[in-house]
Amino acid sequence: xxxxxxxxxxxxFLLSGALKLRxxxxxxxxxxxxxxxxxxxxxxxxxxxxxxxxxxxVASPLPSLLAEVALVIFTVAILRVMRRPLxxxxxxxxxxxxxxxxxxxNSVVRNLILLALAVISNGS
Length: 124
What we know:
- With about 120 residues, the chain is mostly helical.
- It has one domain (about 1-120).
- It is built from five helices and one strand; from the N terminus they run ααααβα.
- It has helices spanning about 1-20, 25-35, 40-55, 60-80, 105-120; one strand at about 95.
- α1 (about 1-20) crosses α5 (about 105-120).
- It is globular.
């Protein structure tokens, strides 16, 4: 079960990072979501590296633990902007333009599912 969870989670991180790199508007969306300006250029490559480590199983369980931390940070950012009225919420852009719709409870549910996969993948 942990192997499947690790590979699925890794695939999600790979896809997310790659789609962000292909979307020139993603850095602006990340800033609107509250990502620090200096970290924005590092998010997509970090997701790709983390995804590759998860899929290959290299340095396990560290990538799973790092995925847990990243998902908690992403979820907190989403919850912060969800305090705004729906009409004023920024787009998630978690998967580049592929997910360019306002942040909502579905974004939180998705992240909680991914967080569960991260927990399962490290054997906790």
